[in-house]
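@channel anyone free to eyeball this complex?
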Amino acid sequence: MNYSIALTPGDGIGPEVSSKAVDVLDLIGDKFGHIFNFVELEAGGCAIDSTGEPLPASTLEAALQCDALLLGAVGGPKWETLPGNLRPERALLGLRAGLGVFANLRPAALLPQLKDACPLKDDVLTASHPEGKANFDLLIVRELTGGIYFGERGRDGDGRSPESSAFDTERYSRAEIERVLRVAYDAASKRRGKICLVDKANVLESSRFWREITMETAAEYKDIETSYMYVDNCAMQLIRAPGQFDVIVTSNIFGDILSDEASVLSGSIGMLASASIGAKSAVKKYPAGMYEPIHGSAPDIAGKDLANPLAAILSAAMMLRYSFSLEKEALAIESAVNKTLDSGLRTKDIASRAKNTANEKIVGTNEMAAAVIKALENG
Ligand code: IPM
Ligand code: MG
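replying in thread with the prediction:
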């Protein structure tokens, strides 16, 4: 099969990590008889430099023609002083909205090889794990194209007077809530069958609406155990007892915050991939899909062969699974990553906190990616 993939390497470490994901996909193509055609596009700071806009219309148009989008990372100090609507981050928001990828899947699990990179003590992990293991494996399903990120915003007054004000609005329609809940429930039915709605229903009307609709949806999914948790409590439970969670479903802003928190537990944000998916349209073969590492552009380590390429590589695996239903191929990538970690290779961010690192070898981006490729070739 032929697949067309829009590639927006972006800024900072984005190009170096996404190019490794491309290498891995090329090899998967050779091994399994697929052709991946990459269409390289500009988005983020690099697009600002060349066109003056973070998301040129031509980028979005071309991305909409492709079967899926792979993004590196966007942003950097160079563009930080620009006004909000011209910052590189606008490219991310514009791509999410433009592609209609309303459900963001952010898995966070503790791989046994990275146990020492997790800041939680063993007894904290075991206490909350259903089988008493020092482990956790959760999936955050974050609503991605609604809520306060996209709601009405503005300023009143001159900005100097005491009554001057600024506002952003959290507004969700029933349709927006229902569709992301479906994705979350479907994900839970393929996992351990548990879902937790995270909200602030003790204060916010929009959260109460989420709760009502979740209760209705829960009644349809009788095999799934549904629970409800306030977001402040969830922030605490994640570091107190992460093993209790299977799928967390939540709004755009709460998902943003909680997924960063969860990433620390898995050892490093440099390990975490994400998939953003939308509806299947009548005109396209595959559902809308955008894949990116959770980490940012890390300008301080860009170009130094220090970045962890695994989140980008694992994002490519998610693309194969969620956009193209190529499960075997996705598993091949994940298993190659596993073998590489088994062999003791670590980029700096996932090196053990313990002093005894005798069986670990600290490597750079290139060596890490080369090892994954080798494991794939031999696998
Ligand atoms: C993320 C990021 C983005 C977000 C920023 C860069 C706009 O933090 O993908 O989590 O807030 O969604
Ligand atoms: Mg974030």
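from a first look: DSSP finds twelve helices and 14 strands in the chain.
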